[in-house]
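Try this one yourself first.
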């Protein structure tokens, strides 16, 4: 059984989510959290964009759409293992056709789906903020800007560096 998570996309820290993404496995901060932070870092939330502005997010709806597209299409290459096609994690992931499963769009605000972690992504002071909540421990693990830190919260006593 995998570590499940939900990610709520919101227009502000106090707004209700307009979309929720469910991840069936690897939903812990050192996987899903780090995957999201790496995807969002170096990009800005904008309101309107020019012809040469291709690497930012035109509002939270665009951020949510890009993140879903990223997760559904950024995959490890498949290889045959005894007649079964499995991800080859010895090779670097790359963009491919979308794969079945793993990530699902849920009703906005969906919870109690067996998730251990919930993530809330929202704009604050023209930056992208993320709050990470451990549902089992009922504790906030991180709350702040995506760009304000260079280390992930400690997991099992070890800080995970973002590279």
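Now uncover the answer:
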């Amino acid at each position: 059984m995998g570590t499940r998570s939900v990610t709520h996309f919101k227009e502000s820290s106090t707004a209700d989510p307009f979309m929720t993404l469910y991840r069936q496995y690897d939903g812990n901060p050192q996987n899903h959290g780090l995957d999201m932070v790496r995807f969002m870092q170096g990009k800005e939330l904008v309101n309107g964009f020019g012809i040469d502005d291709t690497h930012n997010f035109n509002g939270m709806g665009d951020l949510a759409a890009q993140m879903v597209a990223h997760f559904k299409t950024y995959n490890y290459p498949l290889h045959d293992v005894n007649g079964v096609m499995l991800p080859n994690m010895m090779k670097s992931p790359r963009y491919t056709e979308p794969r079945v499963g793993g990530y699902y769009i849920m009703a906005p605000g969906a919870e109690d789906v067996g998730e251990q972690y919930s993530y809330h992504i929202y704009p604050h002071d023209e930056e992208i903020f993320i709050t990470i909540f451990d549902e089992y421990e009922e504790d906030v693990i991180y709350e702040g800007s995506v760009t304000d830190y260079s280390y992930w919260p400690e997991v099992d006593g070890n800080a995970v560096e973002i590279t």
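Discussion: The radius of gyration is 16 Å. The longest strand covers residues 117-124.
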